[in-house]
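Schema walk-through. Below, the input block comes first and the output block second. Nothing else is stored per chain. Lengths vary across the set, and this one has 291 residues.
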Amino acid sequence: MIKKISKAIFPVAGLGTRFLPATKANPKEMLPIVDKPLIQYAVEEAIEAGITELIFVTSSSKRAIEDHFDSNFELEANLIERGKTELLEIVRGILPEGVSCVYIRQKSPRGLGHAVWCAKPLVMNEPFAVLLADDLIDGGERSCLTQMVAQFQQHQASIVAVEKIAPHETQKYGIVDVNNVHEALMPLQGIVEKPIPSVAPSHLGVVGRYILTPRIFSLLEETCAGSHGEIQLTDAIAKLLMEEPVLAYQFSGQRYDCGSKLGYLDATIAYALKHPELSKEFKAKLEAVLA
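--- output ---
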C-alpha cells in the first residue's frame, strides 16, 4: 500500500538569538521577506506539496504564529468597510480551506530531534514532513517539498534534502556519506552531525526539509542528549538508516539561510527583485546605490 504525506511538522520553538533584539518579542519565523513572514513561505510550500495538517511545535513566546494563521475578524471587518477587497482576499487566503493547524508546546529548548518527537501524538503511525522556516527555498515551478514528496511516492523511504556546501562550512550542517555525490537521489551510507572539515564524509549538507517514517519517533526516544542537552535529529536518522533505507535528495532550487543575517538580507533582495509590484523600482534603487 502506497502511503501518502499529509502531515508536516514545523519546529518553531527556537529563541532566535542570532537576530536579537528584533526577536526579543517577535518570533524569528515571523520576520518578513518583503511582505510575508518566513513561516508563511514554509507553510505555502507544504500546502503546494499536498500537506493538509500543519503541526507547529511552539513555545510560550510564539503566540504571534498562532495569531497569523487564525482569523482576525476586526481586521477583516475594517478592510470590508474600507472596500479593500484585494487585501481582504490576501488575509483570508493565508490558510486555504481544507488545511488545519495544530499547536503543541516544546516545554524546553532541547534540540530539533526533541521538537520533532514532541509531535508524535499528532502524527501517530504515518510518514510525515519536517520543514524548517529558517531555510527559505525557492524551487521555481516545483517547490523543494513537492519534489521530495514525488520521490517518496516512488520509493516509500525517508528522505533528507541536501545541497553542496563550502568545505569549511561542514561544522554548520549534518553531513551525509553517499557513494556518488553527483546523483540527484542517493542512498545514505551514513550521516554525521557537524563534523570538522578534515573528517567530513562529503560536502553535502542536510538542509531544512525532511520526509521521515514514524519509526524515527522511537529512535528519538532512545537517542541520548548531546551538547547543551539537545537531542539531534541527525543522530536518530543515523540509527534509522541501519534499519531501513534513507535517501539523500539534491533538490532543484535556491536555498537562502535566513537563520543568518547575511542570508536573510540575500533572500530579501532576491524576493524583492521578483516581486510583481516592487521589482522594477527596487532594481532601480539598488542600481543607484551601487553606482
